[in-house]
Amino acid sequence: MSTDTVLSTLTRRGRGQIPMLVTSVLLVVMFAAGSVSYDGFLSGQVLLNLLIDNAFLLVVAVGMTFVILTGGIDLSVGAMVALSTMISAWLVQLHGWPPLLVIPLVLAIGTGAGLAMGWVIHTFEIQPFIVTLAGMFLARGLCYTISIDSISITDPTYTSMAQTRIPLGELFISPSVLIAVLAVVAAFVVLHYSRFGRNVYALGGSEQSSVLMGLPVSRTKIGVYGVSGFCSALGGVLMTFYMLSGYGLHAVGLELDAIAAVVIGGTLLTGGTGYLLGTVLGVLVLGLIQTVISFQGTLSSWWTRIVIGALLFVFILLQRVLTSRRRT
Amino acid sequence: MKLVTGHRLFWPAVVLIALLLANLAFTPDFFAIRLRDGHLYGSLIDILHFGSPLILVALGMTLVIATGGIDLSVGSTVAIAAALACLHISESDDPGSVGTVLTAVAIALGVALLLGAANGVLVARIGVQPIIATLILMVAGRGVAQLITDGQIITVTSEPFKLIGGGYWLTVPFSILLAAAVVLFASMLTRRTALGLLLESVGGNPVASRLVGIRAAGLIGLVYVVSALCAALAGLMISSNVSAADGNNAGLWIELDAILAVVVGGTSLNGGRFSLGGTVLGALVIQTLSTTVYTIGIPPETTLVFKAVVVIAVCLVQSPVFRAKAARRKSGARHGNRPVASKKLEVGA
Amino acid sequence: MRAQPVLEVRGIRKEFPGVVALDGVDFRLFPGEVHALMGENGAGKSTLIKVLTGVYESDGGEVSLAGQTVRIGGPLEAQQAGISTVYQEVNLCPNLSVAENIFIGREPRRFGLIHWAELRRRAAASVAALDLDIDVTAPLNSHSIAVQQLVAIVRAVDVQAKVLILDEPTSSLDRDEVRQLFTVLRRLRDQGVAILFVSHFLDQIYEICDRLTILRGGRQEGEYLTSELNQTQLVAQMIGGELTGLAELADATRTEPTGTSFLRAEGLGRRGAVEPYDLAIRPGEVVGLAGLLGSGRTEAARLLFGADQSDQGTVKIDGAVTALRSPRSAIGHGIAFCSENRKTEGLVGELTVRENIVLALQAARGWTRPLSRAAQDELAIRWIRALDIRPNNPEALIRNLSGGNQQKVLLARWLITDPKLLILDEPTRGIDIGAKTQIQKLVAKLAGDGMSVLFISAELEEVLRLSHRVGVLRDHRLVAELRNDGTLTPERIMSTIASGATS
What is the mean pLDDT of residues A80-97? Predict the structure, then answer.
């Protein structure tokens, strides 16, 4: 190989990581700018609070990453989170079921719902977005059949999960952060070290090739929606810890945040390329935007949406430029 | 008989009539329309009245879907248009004057035109998938709307503005007339010009369309603009009806209802053939469904469950795979062995 | 000869609704040979390959591997049975690394997790075993198509393939890349792998293949040693010997139109599609393009319509250099093009016959200047009558028409635009004999009225009957232009295709 080809190979290989690189730089710049501008911004706890406040988003975005890597999309995640909070609150608070039974049940319901949507998408070749849209309607609607109002939870297990602080030196995190980090690690291992994970990438790269290479396409495709369903339910459990209530209006628009986090983290919406670490960075960027805006004080909360939209725009254009160059 | 059942509007019409009859069972005077103070009242009028914004948004959505696209940003456009119009009127010295209201409408439609054009450029020129391109505005738009209203609910008192969504004209709610006029205009636009044919061609077979020399980019850009304009009109109606603009809730979920209306109306999400009449019926089905749930006494929020069931049922019926499976089950006993050709692998030599 | 074929197919039959794609085909493949499968469009090559790889289920006959009768249920089963396939379009995942592409689905694992180091080591070893120098850690799409093709072969061989099927692997490779590929194939052959090779390049067939089997119209025409069959005989076998109707040809030969050419291509070419060629068409002239499937006929025509961009040469229309940037600009210059892929590139299936007929004219007018419904009906009815389109209902959905009638609708679509040059790519393929004759007559009449026609067909008889001149393509190159002066025969065209030179 000549130096030229070595160089071009290196840059081409790096191309997949460019968005993630941009995101990392963005994160550092935002944090630096925040630290310079506001007192008390530059502290480890501010960083950890990012995780504490966004643990459920992180878990949901992890599931979304699986789906988007195959080239699909899951619009039902926000509604699944709400449904999970609702079922938890309903069973624990109104029926007195033990949390240790309720939590696995909620996770099973989420996974089952995800698998069911995946099955419909795969078997009947219906676009993922419309199937998961129906899933979203269904899940939100089911919340309201349980109760139209918010149900607060006073169960000691839940309140202790909400209030426990796990010390890290002088700083602290919540149990939810621990669970979210565990979920990220588990998802990372699955994506990079299991055949299922590699099949997810293969499917996103080319479905036809995957069929012809003899990969278990149907199992993989249905599986990613199952993973996403599981992650939404887990996100719902974490949100229940965080909010200490179940409500049909919890997590409205969370699917958009999750998709935004995945895209900002550098995963291609056409599937096949992306990293879980990128998604983590994406979630942190979203969290940091909120933190900066709250530190700033005069900026209103709706700026968060606008900035996220602008970031989405930039990253989608970036993706477009990178993929179109690859083709020529 | 087959001529009737085979007509593309047959099934949407059947569903609508069935829903209306179901209402009749619960409310015997459901079909009654009364004239009071020179205004028409009645459940049917209400359905049309409250369904008008949805009809408008769904109309624009139909054209977008005909090209094989989707527009998720309409809800945000509704909110932005409402916010702009109400802001202009509330800040004006003479909120009651027709001139102020016309300016407000012009501002709202003008901004919507720009938003639609932005979507169109992203999809047709830059080549971003429609669902992604319009997602950007869907996310950012609500923030922009709240920015315009400064997070407040802007209330306005303006008689001419009130007319758009809440007033009466010739005994009929003005919004119904406005929606009817837009429907009429849209069907003229698509069927009296060649727009409809060319859109169906682009959505039905993009490759063949390029080879017959259709300028697809311009057409696709145009439908996103039309969609945004329809959404803006709907936004004006919604805010006029309540005399207020709520950046957070105006037009919330309307994109989903609009997609649903299009699908129920018989236009396939894969693009191609579209039916504006079907979409109007579809929108009325959705609106009637909400009304029905309300009259039966189920919590209105659970309408979502019914909508979900309708979406899945309609999509399954439209899915070629599902049809093939159903047909095979019917005739399988007699014919048995069928060629196993996957749709992705061409049959050929 | 060798004792036992590794793969043997007896009496395979495969039907599709309305078509018998394979009709009792026999085929055998011995270990350590490269065996070519030859045939024109519709001969049944792809169908046979898809039966062998389990994509299609056969309707009759049997397949045996090493003497054992087997039933192949899908691509995975075929692989497990030792039959691996490399397709023309590289069927790997471009986003994964080379190493992963070789091993995906059967990655080495340790403690249940993928053992990446081992995977890379093994991939490097597999690549090295075929004497290739490929960076296995780089993503597949960072390599050229040729290298991707080689990676596909490495994967195919690495699953312990006894039979390797290569379906047009060379169609987008340049000369050096083909040489590299052939080196690998020879090495595999020497290791005892049986290779089934499909290509449209005759030179390549004669360079690499030991034996060949010819299919025509779903039947096996014969099996030969490559050394025993010269290229002319091969082409004759593929195209077929039923050259009837020769008597008519004498009448059909007309005086060549004179005058300045309407369109002139000079050195027009596109890398990987067709080598630079010169071609001129005068008003009233029918120029035929002959050549085997994949010889570059369609590619040459698409450049003249702006459907693909040329990367060298110029087109002159009425003497002026003209850039044909898109179909739209070509249409603006009076050029029309009927694609050979009616379904994917011609019809809009869910529209009616009327709508399909007016589509090109309407596109040219733009959406703001619609044809009135009355004008549309008038046009549709006139052309339905003129071309005898059945059913004669302008509101029928076009996807419900037969192939011949669909083709006539597409012809009508272009004829109402009153083109100066009509490019017809395989207009009579797959349609019934009645419609075929009608279309041929129409072409002759249009030329008589002064239209230029570029007529592409795999049927030499048809090309001869209609054309004033015949351009012959071979291996993506326009090798000869023959004048149809009454002495031109299908045999001469055939030998030109076979030899690549005017005889």
Answer: 94
